[in-house]
Amino acid sequence: MKLLRISEILKDKEISNKHLAAEMKVSENTISKIVRGKTFPRADLLLNMANFLDVDIRDLFEPTKPGGSTGESQELYIRKGERYIKVGEINLYQK
Asked: How many angstroms separate the Cα of 51 from the Cα of each of 54, 59, 70, 91?
């Protein structure tokens, strides 16, 4: 069972496993195993990943209930150079 959605976040932010591994000071193999759901990272590594990826730590996890882990909305970002700037939110579960 896959618990983390790190691969989606990396793809959305156009960050490679290799780049994340270098920033986290772990091997690319470690990141690959985490992304594929073969191993689960330590809490401190999860927190460092969330900080580097500029997301709430809850956003690293797959939702377990309708509405998702972040409630009823998803944050929207634009990319400006190497930075991501929050520009708003969108309601994903509008009735």
From this structure: 5, 11, 16, 24
